[in-house]
Amino acid sequence: MLRSLMGAQKCWSLIRTRNLMEFAPKQAPAFFAKSRRHYSPPTHIKQSEPANDSGTMGEIKEGMMQRLGLEHGYHALPKSREQLLKYTPKLEDLPPRAMQDSFTTAILPLSKDRTLQDKYVSYLGNVRFGRLLEDMDLFAAWCCHKHLVLPNLPEGVHLPYTFVTILVDRIDFTNVLASGTEDIRLSGHVSWVGTSSIEVVVWLEQMVDGRYQKITRALFLMAARNATNTGPSPVNPLQPANEEEKVILAGGADRKKKRQILSAQSIFKVEPNDPEQTLMYELYKRTTPTNTLELNKRILPPNCRWMEDSFQMSTIPSFPEHRNHHNRVFGGFLMRSALEISWAAAYLYCKTRPKLEHISDISFKKPISVDSFIKMTAYVVYTKDNYVQIMTVADVLDTQTGNQVTTNTFYYTFSSPDTVTEVLPRSYHETMWYIQGRRKFEASRTPA
After folding, report:
1. Residue-range definition of the domain harbouring residue 197
2. Which of 8, 99, 169, 298 has a Cα at 20 to 30 A from 429?
3. 401 in the same domain as 366
4. What pTM, to 2 d.p., does this model score?
């Protein structure tokens, strides 16, 4: 095992420089430069005070279990937390908090922990981004813990809260290829709050050439629930401490409004707009023969592929190791699984190793029981130049009836070193997915 790890390190040192050039997109998305305005240097909060050090991710997990009163080991029926419901606070009893209060950091000690390296490293020596998504999801919940202050909670009583991930708004990636043998620092803080919802910004950095380089940044929207996860719970209001925090707080409110507008205008709820309908007609003309009126007769233009032939699917049984404390599947596990099959779909479509550019709109519609079978299907729904847009759908399968219910959708933008084969829809249903993929791709090219 050690010899294999040393080989991976050697391989990484030889190919790292080449990969930085080889896998860079032909035209870098504008958001990489523009989205750093308020998030790039972590010390922007209050301009001077450093973040609170929370230790390693392992220590954070233990700390959260202690605060919530959870025990190690699997139980088919989780320990009841009903006794904590009476400690659910009222909103007026919660003092305001500043962003600095939740501003914290944690370390993934990849440089020292060889067991952890085996879990996180890819065959090229890079870090598996899917593993990092799991940690970012957990870290976002930890930032929520740091934000909470309950003045009336008796000493020794466990926290009467549960935090669940509602959605991940967007995740942007830089051109830094994270090494699997160097420590990674997670940083984050609460950036906006509602009555019972919390937006958390999380970013990852790794030491490169003596200074921390940004790997990615993500926005998580979390819901504060009561101890039994049966209803919402209020959270401390957020009071900006300076002009920078006012800008960030206003940005969170703007993003909420934008999410509501986009949800109302979803292609799955309202008809396509006029330019999109024109595009649909152009697609029809390109794929319909001119020498016959035969019903449903379609032709595939040169250098194109049908969408129906451009997907990958996997059925995943879930296990207790993938659970949260309510015996539901951990959201981070779903994000990792979806990313890995999406990456495989992009790789097989491009016929070369793709680079992950952007993740948008990861939504969690329904909780998944820990004994479920999860079907992940990654579809190539849109292409442009050297970019591939993937839509991945997670369905829960009913083992008795065979029925399936969609619980999550994920959207990923990948780039290839070369121009990719154009994907085309063959049916009206696929055309709607094509339009949706086009919207997501164009949104990924705009700053946060």
Report:
1. 2-264
2. 169
3. yes
4. 0.82
